[in-house]
Amino acid sequence: MSRLVGAVVLLLLSLNSNISIARPVSYTGGVTLIEESDRQSTSMLVHFTPAHQWSIGLRGEHNRDQDYALYTLHPTWLAKRWFGANHQGNLYLHGGVGVATGVNRNPLGEDIAAYGGVIADWETRSLFASYRSRYLDAGHFGAQFVHAARAGFAPYIGKTGDLHTWIMLEIDHRPSERISMTATPLIRFFKGPVLLELGYTLSINQPLINFTYRL
Amino acid sequence: MKHLFVISVMALNLLITPTAVSEDTKNSDAHSHPDARASESDVGGDNAHHHQSHDAHPMEHSGDAADPKSQPTLTRTDEIDRALAAGGAPIVADVLGVVCDFCAIAMNKIFGDQPEVAAVYVDLDTKALSLVLSPSSSLSDTVIADLAVQAGYRIAAIRRDEAALGVAL
């Protein structure tokens, strides 16, 4: 199983990611692997949850448009969790500090990079909504603000351990980009410890591929 | 853009603070209003201590007025049946916020690691945590509530033995 997971992760990274969204804090002692790929970058985050309110991880991100990579220490704090018999809502603050370094013969060298933002989500077994934002200062590589909102529904309700399927639409806004707003319809598959999202960003013809594995 | 980010963070702080106060007030009320069990909240950081002490009394707001016939009973799986056959004691806990398999995994891991627990299953349909203890083991309500917090969730009510099996007393 672990070899299969490793192969899938390598495959996804070889395609093309960004701000963590799916369960950035786990149970106490839990480890989670999150790969994300969007219209601009590909990222990999491995985080450990020492206590149920926060996690700490190592994150790498490759910005394909600007040919630089970020390597950061990535903490996430669960600021608030709303519980209900049929719903759960979460508000997270996330951040990162580390280095940005040029790749693909980018002559800009290295610089210190830091980012921070919020992630909020609310879901039942059939409805989902989320918002996430990040402001990144990558030194001489530049700065960027990104935020995105997502809504989705489950066409059927599966039992524990079943394959759960979600249909979602994500609206992504990056004010500094030439095409600042994009829409990405996506489908989420969720079974046991594995979450896989496949989408397509319409206006710029880029795939969205997100993968999460919870150990 | 930096100004936008700073303003966003400040606005977020303003949003969080009054909400946390109102939710804590609701939790305090929960002790005297059983209906409050259907919706609770947790606040990270310092306020978590408040909730941990609150969890030390998980049955205080467990909804005594609820119809026992409508309460989830032990979910039967092969593992649970084996543990019952071995003489383990059944426990069912109603869990708040269980909406996905990651929630189930968290509780399976946390409770499954306890030596007192012989079998565990989280049923997304009933939002119930089913436990069967190892023979001659015990797990207090306080410990169960604390373990649920470690998993990231909240216990609304705990039933044991006949009540957990749905057998009329």
Poorly predicted runs of 5 or more residues of chain B: 9-38, 43-65
Percent range for β-strand residues of chain A:
over 45%
Proportion of β residues of chain B?
A: 15-25%
Could you give the order of strands across the largest sheet of chain A?
1-2-3-4-5-6-7-8-9-10-11-12
Tally of distinct domains of chain A:
1
Strand segment tally of chain A: 12
End-to-end distance of chain A: 12 Å
Biggest β-sheet of chain A: count, sense, barrel?
Answer: 12 strands, antiparallel, barrel
Q: Give, in order, the helices and strands of chain A.
A: HEEEEEEEEEEEE
Major sheet details of chain B = 4 strands, antiparallel
Q: Predict the CATH topology of chain A.
A: Porin
Helix content, binned percent of chain B: 40-55%
The residue-averaged pLDDT of chain B reads: 72
- Count of extended strands of chain B: 5
Q: What gap, in angstroms, lies between the N and C termini of chain B?
A: 65 Å
> How much helix, percentage-wise, in residues of chain A?
under 10%
Architecture (CATH level 2) name of chain A: Beta Barrel
Q: State the name of the first-level CATH class of the domain at 68-165 in chain B.
A: Alpha Beta
What topology emerges from the helices and strands here?
The complex is a heterodimer of chains A (215) and B (169).
Chain A: H1 2-15, E1 31-37, E2 41-51, E3 54-63, E4 68-84, E5 88-102, E6 110-123, E7 127-137, E8 143-153, E9 164-173, E10 181-191, E11 194-201, E12 206-214
Chain B: H1 2-30, E1 39-43, H2 47-55, H3 78-85, E2 90-96, H4 101-112, E3 117-123, E4 128-133, H5 141-151, E5 154-160, H6 161-165
Helix pairs in contact in B: 4-5
